[in-house]
Every structure is written in C-alpha cells, then in structure tokens.
Amino acid sequence: MDVSLRLPPNKRLRRTTFPHAGIEATLLDAGVVVSGETAGYRWPVTDIDARHRAVFVHAHPDDETVSTGATLAYYAARPDTHVTLVTCTLGEEGEIHVDALAKFAANRSDQLGGYRYAEWLRACDALGVVDRRMLGGAGTWRDSGMMGTASNDHPRAFWRADVDAAAVPLVEVLREIRPQVLVTYDPNGFYGHPDHIQAHRVSVAAARLAADSAFRPDLGPAHHVAKFYWTTVPKSALADGFEALSRSSDNPFEGAAHIDDLPFGVSDDEVTTRIVATGYGRHKLDALAAHETQVPPDNWVYVLAAELGADAVTTEHYILADGERGPGDGPWMWEDDLFAGVTD
After folding, report:
1. Residues 136-158, buried b or exposed e (16+ Cβ, 10 A)?
2. pTM for the full predicted model
3. DSSP 96
4. What's the rounded Cα separation, in Å, for the pair 200 and 78?
5. Helices assigned H by DSSP within 178-309
6. Which pLDDT score, from 0 to 100, does residue 251 have?
7. Are residues 37 and 117 in the same domain?
8. Other C-beta atoms lying within 10 Å of the C-beta of residue 299
9. In the predicted model, is pLDDT for residue 236 greater than 50?
10. Is residue 128 part of a domain?
C-alpha cells in the first residue's frame, strides 16, 4: 500500500525510517511520500498527540550528546513525550580526531560538515530522537569556530547572523511543535563558544517572537513556552569527576588546579533541575561513538564511564531561566522532571 501525504511547502523535513514496522519515508521540502503498512498512520511532526513536548536547541553536531544526551534519550523513550532537536550548524570548523579523515578539515577540502551531518543522524538514532532538524535547513549557517578566529568572519558564520532573522525558522518550529519546554545554553554559551552564545540569543528571540501574535501569523498561531531551561553543571558534580578526568588526555579540566578555575560550572544553589536518566548511559555512549571525528576514544565522558560506570554519565543539570518552577526534592529542592508543574 502506497500513500502520498502533501504537506505545506514551507515544511523542511528529511529522509528517515519510522520506528514502526513496514514504514519507510522520504521527506522533502515540498511534502512527504510514505510507503508500507500505513493505514491510519499520520506523521507525528504535524499531528502530535504527546501530552508533553520539548525542543532542544544546540550549536553543532555532538553538542546534543555531550550536554543533554541522557536527557534526550530518557524523554524520547517516554510515550507521553515528543522531543524535537534543532541544531544550528554542521560543525564545519571542528577539530578532527581521526587521522584518516583529516582531509575533510576546513583548511583542506572543507567537507567536514557533510560528514558530521551523517554522524549527527547516527547519534540521534542512538538516542532515539526521530524529530531532528537543522535550523533553516542544513548548511544555512556555518560553524563560526572558536572566539577570535578568522572563521568568525565567514559570510555564513552563525555568529554573524542577524539574531531575529535566524530566529524565524525556530519560531516556525515552536509554533508547529508547541512545546511546554525549551532547552538551550546560558548567555555565555556554557563555555564561551560564539555559536553557543548565538544559539542562546536565537532561542531567546524565538521564544519571544513565537509568543507574539502580531509576528509572522503565517508561521502559525502564537505559542508561549512555559519553561525555558539552560544547560549547566553544578560545581559539586565537577568536583566528583575532577580526579577521574585528570587521567584523560582529552581532559576538559586540563590546566585547572581547582574547579573554581574552570570557565563553566555554577554553585549548587543556582541549579534548579537534575535529570537522572538511569539506564540510558549506553544510549549516550553509543551516540558519542557516532561522533567519531569529534570524540576520541579517551574522551573525558568515556573515562568517566570507565571509572564510575555508565550511569555516571546519565545525570544532567539545568537552570530554569523562565517559567514556574515545579516541586523538587533534596537540599536545594531540585526538580527531577523538565515538565514538573506543567499542567497543559
């Protein structure tokens, strides 16, 4: 049985295999063609029945896994939750950790973006994230590289993008998905990378514009995000891993004598939410392995898992930047659910 479903031409979807027996699809800018045992089935991106909906915005392929991989896997597996991942660039300026692929680097053939796109798809599969999108379509904006480098000035560098213009495709996603939860980085982009900072700015702008009924009504009815989170790491968690990670050649703490010397990490009282995704450590590690150009075998996450067990990488922390805080527990009354307190 073959069925053709036509979607509005402004939908930017992709080729995927649905997690349902006998269903395979080619999704194009102009629509979707579905083949297989499809009777009564509708593509969930345009008809979402899930009670809970969350959108995660990240800068480059692999960021979704490193900072929120366990959270993504945990919520993607919940039948009452729809997870959407929006990634802003292809990561063209990334450092390559596989010698055989060094020729793809930005200063050589400049083909790393396409390779990382394939890695990103495999990582999303490992995490169970079906609804994954590139902001504005793959290649719209380019990885800006580290702060102060020449790549910041590339004409398509995400860092150079007009914030409100870059927010428009994210407004479209927010009005389509209508999430209660939006997750991205803090104003410093967690550690100061220009694309992470820009992802924060674009997310803030998109949340504001999506809620404004006078802005681009052609993109759908206005939508207000109930809870807006920033990724973070409490200093107590950094202290726990400080010694173990000192044995990694990819140690993110290299050169730091104390956790207070690090450019990231917050006091425990600033954290509002802790997601303990027990049982999803293997999902996160498999997703990391998919990002082979960026994540060497001695990456700090692998070292932490080897030292403390896979579940050591399944606890991830957040700061509720906007919205009503839900009930919590422990000395700091941390929420244990991004949807804590959500009623609609």
Report:
1. bebebbbbbbeeeeebbebeebb
2. 0.85
3. P
4. 26
5. 194-210, 235-245, 281-290, 300-308
6. 64
7. no
8. 22
9. yes
10. yes
